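> call design_seq(struct)
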């Protein structure tokens, strides 16, 4: 995704670039800019939608459900750790495996830029590759 400099100055929050499943119970999350670690590593700032009517496995939201605080990922379900020192790449490890052959969409919200705080919106965009079919 190419963003020209004037457009980048208008973006006040990190955008999810890509999500990849790297193990049956792990996904790699990559943002386009350095994130505030506290907000990026807060699992309650993430939702995972499945293409099924009801959530299964690592999913917290089914196809028809709205994102709410009650269906966000909880600390007893998963944890997030930095994948490196970039503040842009993170590994989310779940206590259960993703349901094989199910489409998952990762939906982060409230993740701030490094040094920032108070962002209250979504962290994905039209060019985010935030879907994967579980292996």
């Amino acid at each position: 995704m190419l963003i020209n400099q004037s457009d980048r100055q208008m973006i006040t929050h990190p955008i999810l670039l890509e999500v990849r499943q790297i193990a049956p119970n792990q996904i790699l999350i990559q943002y386009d800019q350095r994130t505030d670690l506290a907000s990026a590593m807060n699992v309650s700032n993430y939702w995972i939608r499945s293409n099924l009517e009801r959530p299964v496995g690592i999913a917290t939201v089914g196809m028809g459900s709205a994102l709410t605080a009650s269906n966000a990922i909880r600390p007893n379900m998963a944890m997030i750790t930095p994948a490196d020192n970039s503040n842009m790449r993170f590994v989310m490890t779940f206590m259960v495996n993703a349901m094989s052959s199910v489409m998952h969409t990762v939906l982060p919200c409230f993740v701030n830029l490094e040094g920032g705080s108070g962002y209250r919106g979504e962290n994905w965009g039209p060019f985010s590759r935030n879907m994967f079919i579980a292996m």
